[in-house]
Amino acid sequence: MALSPYLLSPLLLILSNIFMTFAWYAHLRDMAAKPWYLAAFLSWSIALCEYLLQVPANRIGFSVMSVAQLKIIQEVISLSVFVPFAIFYMNQPFKWDFVWAGLCMVGAVYFMFRG
């Protein structure tokens, strides 16, 4: 039984965003004392995994959604992955601004998917 593009695309985007978030930010904690070019090389290695998931996710999603809808789904997923990462992995304090930003994203989703 094949998964619906409406389910498969976001699932792949969630996995992609996990890799993306680590590629973009984990080196700030884990490689702070290393030269930037080592961090960049490791980040690009992780980003390859991200792209191997993100490209098929967008191709699958584009079969049933517009590019604007795919983009807003990507942004919601990105924030949904980033906030726990920032709090639990990067040890950043919780901020209510995360909630307010999320509510703004709910509005953006509404406008991209209405009518």
Poorly predicted parts: none
Given the helix and strand composition, which structural class is it? mainly alpha
Query: What is the makeup of the main sheet?
Result: none
Report the principal-axis shape.
flat
Q: Give me the Rg, rounded.
A: 16 Å
Q: What proportion strand?
A: under 5%
Number of helices: 4
Fold and architecture overview:
- This protein has 115 residues and is mostly helical.
- 82% of the residues lie in helices and 0% in strands.
- It has four helices and no strands.
Keywords:
115 residues; mainly alpha; flat
Give a short synopsis of this structure.
The chain crosses the membrane at residues 7-24, 36-53, 73-90, 96-113. The chain has helices spanning 5-30, 36-62, 67-89, 96-113.
Write the layout of secondary structure elements.
Elements: H1 5-30, H2 36-62, H3 67-89, H4 96-113
